[in-house]
Structures are given as structure tokens and as C-alpha cells.
Amino acid sequence: MVCMKALGSRVETVLLTTACGIALSGCRTAPSKKPSDHQVATAQPSTPKQDMTIPEVTPAEAKKLLDENAGYVYLDVRSVSEFVAGHAPGAMNIPIAEPNAATGQMEPNPDFLSVVEATIPRDAKLIVGCKSGNRSARACGMLIRAYYNSPHNMVGGFGGALAPDGTVTTKGWSMLGYPVEHGDGGELSYQALVSKSRSSHR
Fold it and tell me: Is the alpha carbon torsion for 161, 140, 72, 74 positive or negative?
């Protein structure tokens, strides 16, 4: 009887030890998986300065800053054809969007930021303009996220801002009778700036 009791105690001990081992193994934390190179490469980067405030200037304020020769640069983000038809004197043209040759619809310019970064330093004092102020506001947002210090959106743009019914809400540069140049801008044309950016990457 003593032997049977001892044997029974040993069996109970083995069963209890096995059960505890199984329970503990189920409670162990699975090792974290290291992300693959593909996951790292395709992960979305964090967006800096999400709660940004875009400084604004009117065409009158922009002209004053440019006339004072205080180091401000006028960046015109309209299409090349719009720029050629008329622009502020001394403006640089880097379109944020261009019309698709097949459809005529405006499409984002994938080279916008790279050309800006290759030709304009991040500490430059920028006045950014388009036709009415919408495209230039988007451009300012992109520039701020790329750590440009002081891009100012010119509200009203070159041609004026319009309400849905077509009435002018803010007069643009050309509507105020300010100086206007025509042509591609020579060294400040988009084609010239693209060539400069490519040569800087060689």
C-alpha cells in the first residue's frame, strides 16, 4: 500500500509539472518580428509641422517687399503657359501642376519640390504666387513640410480670387496695374531651372 501511495504521488507530481509547463508556455510573449526591408522602405514617413499656419501677403504687400529689395524671391507656381503669358518681374517659374497633353487636365508636377530644393535655399524669403492663391497655398504647405523657413502665400495671386458667382473677392497682381513681364523668364524659366537642378545632382 505504501508503494502504491508513493507511486501515485509521483504520477500526480509529474502531471502537475507538465500542466504548469504547458500553462507557462502559453503565457510566454511571442518574440517581436523585425520589419522587413520592404516594410521599412514603404512605410509612410511622419509628417512634420502638421499644424502649420501659412503666412499670407496681399499683392500690395508683396510688391512692397519686392520693391524694398529685402531679399525676397517671387516663386510663381503656375503652369509654364500661364507664366509666359504674363508674370511679375523677376519671378521664378516652378509649376506645382501642369496640364496633361492628352486630356488637358491639370496634374501635379512630380518634380516640383526637387527643383525647388535644387535652386532655392531653405532660408530664402519666399513670396509664392499662382493665379488666385489656391495652388500657391498648397505649394507653401509642401515647402513648410520640407522645412522652408518663410514661404508667404500671395492671396489673390496674379489674376485675382473669385467667388463662386464670379465676383472678384481679392484683386490680383495684374488687376492692380502692377508691372508685368511676358516670356519664359530666361534664366528664371522652368526649363532653365530644371537644367540647373539636374546639373547640381551630377
Answer: negative
The rounded distance, in Å, linking the Cα atoms of 185 and 182 is: 8
Cα–Cα distance for residue pair 171/162, rounded to 1 Å: 9
Helix extents (H) in 51-178: 59-67, 80-85, 112-119, 134-145
| Prediction pTM value | 0.74
Residue 182 three-state SS: coil
CA distance 158 to 154: 9
Residue 80: all three cell numbers together = 509654364
Across the beta sheet with 92-93, the strand order is 56-57, 150-154, 125-129, 72-76, 92-93
Kindly report the length of the chain: 202
Which residue type is seen at 101? A
Contacts of 66 (CB under 8 A, 6+ apart): 72, 74, 88, 90, 127
Between CA 192 and CA 177 the distance in angstroms is: 28
Which domains are seen in the chain, by residue range? 56-200 (3.40.250.10)
**What end-to-end distance do the CA atoms of the chain give, in Å?**
93
Burial string for 148-173 (b: 16+ CB within 10 Å, else e) reads beebbbbbbbbbbbeeeeeeeebbbb
pLDDT in tens, 150-175: 899 999 999 999 999 999 999 999 99
pLDDT in tens, 25-35: 444 444 434 33
Instruction: Pull the grid cell for residue 21.
Output: 509547463
